[in-house]
Amino acid sequence: MIVEHLSLKDFRNYAEAELELEPGPNVLVGRNGQGKTNLAEAIAYLATLGSHRVSADAPLVREGQDAAFVRARLRHGERKVILELQINKQGSNRARIGGSPVRANELPRYAQVVLFAPEDLQIVRGNPGERRRFADQLLVQRTPRMAAVLADYDRTLRQRTTLLKSARARGMKASQLSTLDVWDDKLVALGSEIIDARTRLAQDLAGPVARAYAGVAGADHRPELAWTLTIHGADPEEGDEMDRGGEGETAAQFRAALEQKRSQEPDRGLTLVGPPRDDLLLKVRGLPVKGYASHGESWSVALALRLASAELLRAESPGGDPILILDDVFAELDADRRARLAGVVADYEQVIVTAAVSADVPEPLRANAVRIEQGRILGALADHPFGPDAGAGDE
């Protein structure tokens, strides 16, 4: 799969933009703050329905405007499709596929993108929400219908939380909330599907993560990943990482865990078990990455997670390779890891690299380099030459 053409209107710092991309490597070069990452972000949004930098859509819309527009022409072999997305500051986003209106959550069926950025270090070093976000975005790409399941779960959870807060305000106990069972039924049905899908994802990523880690780090530090689940008694959000396991189907475990915590929930005003409180535990050398891994090991794990995601999507997708985006990555890596990473990604159908300094990008990936300046696409570097140190530094 490749992006042949990207059009933007009122997206981030772009009033308008037209970008032609080629098969194989493409490099977007420009000083920090010029807009090269915004182009990568727009492409990735079509596949993940979210930004890798912000959790809300409003920052994606150019200042003073109500909506941003993203249009991309994708090619799958001989087949081409045009995806269009209107990102609204307020209200639901709107989408079209081949000119026909669709729900926005249909877009990942046609666009598969894996983006790695410096922010991904937070997947391994940040709070559990960062790891849940990584997993859920990959779930949506792997199984697009999961976007609706996750959205339905969030709506159900909000309704249940509203009920619990109302009970707390009125001094009611859980036993007095007759409607809580209705929300519990919905929560269990949707939450069990999410937990099972996340568990399968971790199992399927295990092999690709180990291979990708060895490929980038040049060492086998035995990377591992597994979910720590609140339905098994753990509470990662409270610092408890012990997963004591359990027997029986996920739904039965979920329901039993809800019943066990029910008496505490009105006092806390929130739901104490379920997918939004679970965590993806990452290890190297038998130790948790968070708190024990070196900086280099943490980078290698974060890279391995994204490269493993690409490998998984590549193996499962009839549309060919996912589009692989490396956003401001090479400046953070030493020369050995740069070369190793370039070797790992070189055979993907399309790789999009952003860099402040073109010399940071290994030679095999420097084809089709384009200069970006102040929200404008100025064309190939051959037409706008500057030295290897040009473009360095923040503005």
TrEMBL record:
Database matches in SUPFAM superfamilies: P-loop containing nucleoside triphosphate hydrolases (SSF52540)
Protein localization: Cytoplasm
Pfam family, one: SMC_N
Record keywords, A-Z: ATP-binding, Cytoplasm, DNA damage, DNA repair, DNA replication, DNA-binding, Nucleotide-binding, SOS response
Source domain of life: Bacteria
Positions annotated to bind ATP: 30-37
A GO BP entry: DNA synthesis involved in DNA repair
A GO term, aspect molecular function: single-stranded DNA binding
Cellular component aspect of the GO annotation: cytoplasm
Role summary: The RecF protein is involved in DNA metabolism; it is required for DNA replication and normal SOS inducibility. RecF binds preferentially to single-stranded, linear DNA. It also seems to bind ATP.
Protein name: DNA replication and repair protein RecF
Species whose genome carries this gene: Microbacterium sediminis
Lineage per the UniProt record: Bacteria, Bacillati, Actinomycetota, Actinomycetes, Micrococcales
Protein's gene: recF
